[in-house]
Amino acid sequence: MSLSKQISSTVHRTLQESPAKLLHGYVDGRFVPGRREFPDVNPADGSVVAKATEAGEELVDAAVGAAHRALKGEWGRLGVRERAAMMCRIAERIEARFAEFVAAEVADTGKPISLASRLDVPRAAANFRVFADLIKTAGVEAFHTETTDGRSALNYAVRKPIGVVGIITPWNLPLLLLTWKVAPAMACGNTVVVKPSEETPATATLLAEVMHETGVPPGVFNLVHGFGPDSAGEFLTRHPDVNAMTFTGESRTGAAIMRACAPNVRPVSFELGGKNAAVVFADCDFAATVDGLAEAVFLNTGQVCLCAERVYVERPIFEQFVDALKQKARGLRAGWPTDESTTLGPLISKEHREKVLSYYGLAREEGATVVTGGGVQGFGDARDNGCYVEPTIWTGLKESARCVQEEIFGPVCHIASFDSEEEAIALANDTRYGLAASIWTTNLQRAHRVAPQMDVGITWVNCWFLRDLRTPFGGVGLSGIGREGGVHSLNFYSELNNVCIKF
Ligand code: NAD
Ligand code: 6OH
Description:
Blueprint lengths: L2 H15 L4 E2 L1 E3 L2 E3 L3 E6 L6 E7 L2 H16 L1 H4 L2 H17 L1 H12 L3 H25 L4 E5 L5 E10 L2 E5 L5 H14 L3 E5 L6 H13 L6 E3 L8 H6 L6 E5 L2 H11 L6 E4 L4 E5 L5 H13 L9 E7 L3 H14 L18 H16 L3 E4 L19 E4 L6 H4 L6 E7 L2 H8 L7 E5 L3 H7 L7 E4 L18 E2 L4 H7 L1 E9 L1
Parallel strand pairs: 1-5, 8-9, 8-11, 9-10, 11-12, 13-14, 13-18, 14-17, 16-17, 18-19
Antiparallel strand pairs: 2-3, 4-5, 6-7, 7-21, 12-20, 15-16
The protein binds nicotinamide-adenine-dinucleotide and (2E,4E)-2-hydroxy-6-oxohexa-2,4-dienoic acid.
């Protein structure tokens, strides 16, 4: 059977079987039930695809305890090459169960099967392989120091695990973002307690199965399900024995986690929200830019932290560009996620749809021209119980409008015009966020001049979301603290002990 047929039949089987499925936490090498069950809902039609069990404070405490014991056990004694080999086996097991991972991600998020197969699951395997390679080749700093008595000292830094790492992740790219943190944490010899989003518990549970099958020692990878406040998320962040916290999610949640980490002065790494700008110059490759922006605005129904919600277009091509992006928006196929030809899935939940629709309403009040969309599609089938919204484009808003300043996290952008490079830079930087920007031009001198002036952590030129996992990834301002990726991840997930030897 071809891979795509295999994936498709696994997805259909999973959706049929899954209402009976109970997703437990994984603590100290065992699957353990939590204190109560909560539903895992498929946002394509509102059906319950599984139930997960919420970890209470005792289970989170057990997970942290197991993670500490594992640091001192077999895992702590493994050499770097053995750890790296284990991580490669994890990548292989993810690939061996590729169709199941895709099925679980599609059922939980409603994202199109084509996207989960192309992006989410391959990246999960890649995350383990890349950090396995990096840790094997990572060097340390060394300095030869001349001392005042005419002798010398050698300084070199020793990399050590930081300890037990707490990992909390969101629902938009659940497996990709979880493994983006689990892999470097494990590569550096740490143990982890992970808390995936309550909206998307399934692929994290499959990952626990993979850890089990791969022979990862008990306590190295622990999984607790549940919510944020007064639930597993909060219990984990305020646990005094968690040595570092890494979090991807909303800026507001980042602030709450930072407060929880403050009393014990633990390091945090935060990848938070964005209100990303795309700057389109009149000298761009028009067709490629329209294709690129259609992805940057609508991929994953706009639920990617890197999505462009503010598009600035140089005046001579403004009308033509608005019209071309409108055609792209209208060409998106809001279908069943399991259908190969679907290009637009639902939003993650009814609650999130209410939020996005509230911005669709607010934009009208704020004086927007609705170029396309602005409402909800009617399907005449079970998708009407789901969380779909129309892809939407606005023009005509003031820069101070809430719809231009606040992260919406839906399939929507505002397009405004500009007249000069300086104006474009000022407009792009007029935000409290600072995650990513994209610049579209065929003038490379301009690209080199403008890109460094973007107040963000990541600037793409003539591309978007093109990832090399060795590069620094993160944001400024409300978009986060720190960088992960390559050596930046290794530095967050390890402590350096500088050894100074006089000779
Ligand atoms: P969220 O902040 O609501 O939830 C993220 C996670 O935090 C979930 O697991 C949730 O249960 C947990 N949580 C919530 N409150 C908590 C608390 N008080 N203590 C501990 N844990 C808590 O985010 P979301 O709605 O799941 O995801 C969407 C957001 O994530 C958007 O803002 C998006 O921009 C951002 N995001 C950022 C990046 C990035 O790399 N910068 C990547 C993906 C998503
Ligand atoms: C946000 O939704 C996407 C984040 C992507 C990454 O963290 C990554 O490593 O590609």
